[in-house]
Amino acid sequence: MFSKIKNMDTAFRQLRNVVVLVIVSSLLLLIVSMTLGYRLLSRTQDRIYVLANGKAFQVFASSTRDNIPVEAREHIRSFHQYFFTLDPDEKAITHNLQKALYLADLSAKRIYDDLQENGFYASVISGNVNQTILVDSIQVDIEGYPHKFRCFATQRIVRPKSLTMRELVTEGYLRRISRSDNNPHGFLIERWRTIINRDLSTKSRY
User: Fold this and answer.
1) Which residues share a beta bridge with 163?
2) Total count of domains within the chain
3) Beta bridge partner(s), residue 49
4) Whether residue 164 sits in one domain with residue 84
5) What's the pTM?
6) pLDDT 10s digits, 163-187
7) Rounded to an integer, what distance in angstroms lies between the CA atom of residue 108 and that of residue 194?
8) Segment holding 39, helix H or strand E
9) In this structure, is residue 57 part of a structural domain?
């Protein structure tokens, strides 16, 4: 009789140990599965698929904070290229300047208005002048806010009979704003001004 009770007690303990082991194993498996699933979801969310020419390309997203220096420099470069790239075509000038003015505040609009009032753009059209700009380097203070920047560039001005190379240095501040189709980098140039704008060389084209 006691032997049977002892065997039943031993069997119960063994069964209890098995149940506890199964429960603990299940919990461990659940925790591991959730951890791996979370990591996989995080990696999946960082992947972006871009469709171009009928083909899907995989790119990886990164935090905006990591891209601030790159995006800030690209914003400044885009603004200067739009603002200073001029062709003897009224529609082309208007198109570029509209894009530029979306990227800056009233400080750029005031410079544009002054040039317009002084007949600068009319002289570009009537004189068949073509102006392009090469941004050499951009310095951005990421630690301070708004971010102060300085842009170093070279202008190439082609007139019917001459070619002029001009040094251009500007500075201003960057403020963060919402991204949009007209402002994809989410910055706004403020207090923009020209520090240096002088001829480096002029030579005859003929």
Assistant:
1) 158, 203
2) 2
3) 58
4) yes
5) 0.70
6) 999 999 999 999 999 999 999 999 9
7) 10
8) helix 2-45
9) no
